[in-house]
Write a structure and sequence with these properties.
The complex is a heterodimer. By secondary structure, chain A is mainly beta. Chain A has one domain (4-100): SH3 type barrels (Roll), CATH 2.30.30.50. Chain A has 2 helices and 5 strands, in the order E-E-H-E-H-E-E. Chain A has helices at 52-55, 74-77; strands spanning 17-20, 39-49, 65-73, 88-94, 98-100. A 5-stranded antiparallel sheet of chain A has the order 4-3-2-1-5. Chain A starts with 16 loop residues before the first strand and ends with a strand. Helix content of chain B is 44%, strand content 12%. Chain B contains 11 helices and 4 strands. Chain B has helices at 14-29, 35-47, 51-62, 64-72, 74-80, 113-116, 121-124, 126-131, 136-142, 179-183, 188-192, and strands at residues 89-94, 99-104, 152-157, 162-167. The longest helix of chain B is centred in the N-terminal third of the chain and has 16 residues, at 14-29. The chains are: A mainly beta, B alpha/beta.
Chain lengths: 102, 201
């Protein structure tokens, strides 16, 4: 985990509402398609980590990106979700994929 | 991951086997790793089993302070009882009477190998990875696991640098059991969350 000068500043706090960017760039991505464009809530901050989109191409991935666990209602991810409407999916997402949705 | 071979049966891995062999050969030729490094890592992976995760769960069941530590910083808590975690970060998610947790990696097959060893084949299958986020109860029922009405499901998608294990609820009727005996109740599938331990033994 990287910290300090090599890490981007964490912009979000637990409880903040965020929207995942609806972007479809090429390359090695760790942002599942099924959450792009959807709104969730920051569950926790996990630390800052070298950006895997850069690491995949043997670049340093710095500054490190803050990583969060974001909680989505399953009914937000799938409008036709058939099971308990209280169910959730929690996904690790890097800050550069998140927009403020408060 | 893009599949240059196109969609096909999951066991048609000839392409990937050849690619893996070629990459391994190149890495050794270029001096990035040695054959002994590769053998050593394979051996270390094969030596880890879900008994490690079970030991951590049993310790959390008997020691409430330890359980609190495990929920706050699972990597440190695992290391504190001699379970080496390595560079990835561990998170323990706790089952309660209201919440059942399930682990998946929809993008590939990230798995808490440091505590559970080598993942089962089904964990890596496209069927499990794509369906458990969308139809969790249906998938769990196929494992023979019924989630009672009113219990909420939290699915954890290990997309990045965290790895997860589930802390199952301690079955009733186990008061006074030794940690070793308790650990014997904890199955691999209960640590992934596709199984619920019995309410009572």
């Amino acid at each position: 985990m990287a910290m300090g000068a090599d890490a981007a500043r964490a912009r979000f706090r637990p409880g903040d509402r965020v929207r995942v960017r609806a972007a479809y760039p090429p390359g090695h991505l760790r942002t599942p398609y099924y959450c792009r464009g959807h709104v969730g809530v920051i569950e926790r901050f996990c630390g800052a980590f070298a950006n895997p989109e850069e690491l995949a191409y043997n670049r340093p991935g710095l500054p490190a990106q803050p990583l969060y666990r974001v909680r989505f209602k399953s009914t937000e991810l799938w409008t036709d979700y058939r099971e308990d409407p209280q169910d959730v999916v929690e996904i690790e997402l890097y800050q550069h994929w998140l927009e403020d949705a408060s | 991951m893009n599949d240059p071979a196109g969609p096909g049966p999951e066991d048609s891995r000839g392409y990937y086997r050849r690619m893996q062999a070629a990459v391994e050969e190149l890495l050794i030729l270029k001096g990035v790793v040695t054959a002994a490094d590769v053998d050593g890592e394979v051996e270390a992976m094969a030596s880890r089993s879900p008994a490690r995760g079970a030991r951590m769960v049993a310790h959390a069941w008997v020691d409430p302070d330890y359980k609190a530590r495990a929920l706050a910083d699972a990597s440190a808590a695992a290391e504190a009882i001699g379970l080496e975690v390595g560079p990835l970060r561990l998170i323990v998610v706790e089952n309660t009477p209201d919440v059942h947790n399930v682990i998946v990696c929809t993008l590939c097959s990230c798995y808490p190998r440091m505590l559970l060893g080598i993942p089962p084949e089904w964990y890596k299958s496209r069927a499990y990875r794509s369906r458990v986020v969308r139809d969790p109860r249906t998938v769990l029922a196929e494992f023979g696991t019924q989630i009672p009405d009113g219990v909420r499901i939290r699915v954890h998608d290990s997309t990045a640098d965290m790895r997860y294990i589930v802390l199952p609820m301690r079955p009733a009727g186990t008061e006074g059991w030794s940690e070793e005996r308790l650990a014997g109740l904890v199955t691999r599938d209960s640590l992934i969350g596709v199984e619920r331990l019995p309410d009572t033994v």
